[in-house]
Amino acid sequence: MPSNAELAIDARGVDKQFGKLRAVAELDLQVQKGHIYGFLGPNGCGKSTTIRMLTGLLTPTRGEINVLGMAIPQQAEALRRHIGYMTQKFSLYEDLSVRENLQFIADIYGLGVRESKRKIDELTATYHLDAQRQQLAGTLSGGQKQRLGLACACINEPELLFLDEPTSAVDPQNRRDFWEQLFDLSDRGTSILVTTHYMDEAQRCHQLAIMESGHIRAKGNPQALLEAMPLHVIEIAGHRLRQLKSHLGQFSEIPSAAQLGDRLRVLVDKKIDAPIPWLLEKSRAVAGQLTPPQLTQVAPNLEDLFVSVTGKGLEASREAEDVTG
Amino acid sequence: MLLASLRRIKSITTKEIRQLKRDRITFGMVVMIPLIQLLLFGYAINTDVRNVPVVVVDQSHSAAGRWIVEAVKVTQVVSIEKHYASAEEAEAAITRGEVRAALILPPNLTEKLAHGETLGQWVVDGSDTMIASAISQLRNMPLDQLTRQDTQKKPTFEVALFYNPEQRSAVNIVPGLIAVILTMTMILFTSAAIVRERERGNLELLITTPIKPLELMLGKIVPYILVGLVQMTIILGLGHLIFDVPINGAITQLLMGTLLFIAASLTLGLIISTIAKTQLQAMQMTIFVILPTILLSGFMFPFEAMPKPAQWIAELLPATHFMRIIRAIVLRGGTLSDMQFDALWLIGFTLVGILVASLRFNKRLD
């Protein structure tokens, strides 16, 4: 466990209740300085609520939050100078040009005339917005808007960046470029908390937390999480995969089976030592006689991890919410 | 075909009603606008002018003088606020807007009474034609018990109309229109200001920056101050050119008075914008303020003719105070120091309003 001075974010036992809905439950989160920390989860799982609590926009119902050594929400005002925040929805002024938006944010952060000019030149160059400087923000493409959002969030050279689903409206090429820029920032010492629902993005983070219905289901280094996953991943090639899938669904040792084209990707509990013979036997009733070459054990990916840690315990957490609500 | 169409219409109607019920401010306005406004205006609108505040200058100090004052009082057209020794004091009170008229009874009142001559003089602030005509009705007031019918050949009183001798209503309406139009535009502009940022999602970013609520509020109202001054210039300039409205006061007084009112209206708009969740709600609340401004502020009906409770409500509206200030300055050549109470009220309203708006504007989302 890193010491306090090395932590950009330290949240312990954080709860947020909206009426009867428990949006975030017992959240523990430690983000090391200089890391890109990914928050993976479906929409509505509490990612945005968590970010809003960490930035002091929402007051937690319970728990302690410390961001950059400041107690939140008490010292939220002091924190604002040191963070950048990119909201999920484009939150700049669509009726101002790229340059005017940057100028506005620079003025709010109190940058001097010369400094803000230098900074705006630098940011428009870094984020490939030079050609769009005079263009109204409302007319930018999804990728350009996202780069402008990041440029504005970086104008005060924040120590910590909060990015709430920054790539949700962006094509794959722009997403790749965007992540390159995040690593550049990280390389210069900026800590980043980024939420996403893309597996490939989650894979790129130094640290990762998987969130579902307000709970963190798993957290750690993505590679370590995959290695520690208590499941075999078997792919079955063959026919009648729909029937096979619904048949396999009845076994408690198989938490998930998902079809990928002409293959079925099956997760099998590690307590089964030899998953392939086991599966051959279990699937005989439906798929007829499968031959061993049709079954291959493959390396787990983040999606497998995500499926394995979410879903189960969902019922339990819902019951808990009913009790607390 | 028709059935399917009706079903689709019904589905839209159901959805609208559901949304309306969930938008509690709009839902409240649906009920409140007609209810409150009707009660307010049904009760307050009263074109029978009564209880016009006046002063009496009785230079005769005679029994007849006291009797005439009593006789004037029982007509209920006027309400005697004060007694002054000289006509100059009385005229100053009219300029300050404390009273609308003065009854001046000459030293030789008893003599005039005996000869059946005109007994005294009403000096009237003629800018409000409704008030002027109410008092003019007293001109031929019969004083049967003091005089014999046959000796009284001349009118009982002589009426001198100040400020608007031709009794043109434009003279009174144009300055009042400044108050109404400024209320409308100033409150409308600012009430939408913060709501718009909230609706467009700009606010979430803005509140994570170091900007302070007060800075945001002040920054937002400054551009509209200029807009307000432009509007005032247009209304008064055209009023002067086209309707020949006299501008008797100093331009600096006019500017300062208008600035006070613009500031008060803008803060009211800001308060609304911290309450409203959508631009539509902001608009509705603005209308909620504008209607009484038009009807109760003294713009359409003389303030003094309204019942007391309506006057108390009117006193809460910045426009009522500005109506007095602008008419005093434009029509009667008054100054802000003549209108201290109203000027201080507007300043107080602005300061309290800015404070309330900044306190209400939380840099949080919950």
First CA to last CA of chain B: what distance?
48 Å
Overall structural class of chain B, as computed from helix and strand content, comes to alpha/beta
Count of domains of chain B: 2
As a percent range, the share of helical residues of chain B equals 55-70%
Instruction: Please give the CATH architecture of the largest domain in chain A.
Output: 3-Layer(aba) Sandwich
The count of helical stretches of chain B stands at: 14
At the fold tier of CATH, the topology name of the largest domain in chain A is Rossmann fold
**Outline type of chain A:** elongated
The number of helical elements of chain A comes to 12
Through-space gap between termini of chain A? 33 Å
Q: Please name the two chains that share the biggest interface, counting residues whose Cβ lies under 8 Å from a Cβ on the partner chain.
A: A-B, 25 and 16 residues
What is the N-to-C succession of helices and strands of chain B?
HHEHEHEHEHEHHHHHHHH
Strand order of the largest sheet of chain A: 6-7-8-3-9-10
Q: In a nutshell, what does this entry contain?
A:
The complex is a heterodimer of chains A (325) and B (366). With 325 residues, chain A is an alpha/beta fold. Chain A has 12 helices and 14 strands.
Write up this protein.
The complex is a heterodimer of chains A (325) and B (366). With 325 residues, chain A is α/β, with parallel strands linked by helices. Chain A has helices at 47-54, 76-79, 98-108, 113-126, 142-153, 172-187, 199-204, 222-227, 241-248, 275-287, 302-309, 314-324; strands at residues 7-18, 21-32, 36-40, 62-67, 70-72, 83-86, 160-163, 191-196, 207-212, 215-220, 231-237, 256-260, 263-269, 295-298. Chain A has a six-stranded mixed beta sheet with strand order 6-7-8-3-9-10, with helices on both faces. The model of chain A is unreliable at 313-325 (pLDDT under 50). Chain B has two domains: 52-162, abc type-2 transporter like domain (abc type-2 transporter like fold); 169-360, no CATH class. Chain B has helices at 2-22, 24-44, 63-74, 87-95, 109-115, 129-136, 169-200, 202-206, 213-242, 251-275, 279-296, 308-316, 318-332, 340-360, and strands at 52-58, 78-83, 101-105, 120-125, 157-162. In chain B, strand 4 (120-125), helix 6 and strand 5 form a beta-alpha-beta unit. In chain B, helix 7 (169-200) packs antiparallel against helix 11 (279-296) and helix 7 runs antiparallel to helix 13 (318-332). Chain B starts with a helix and ends in a 6-residue tail after the last helix. The A-B interface holds A 52, 55-59, 73, 76-77, 80-81, 83, 85, 87, 89-94, 105, 108-110, 152 and B 200-211, 363-366.
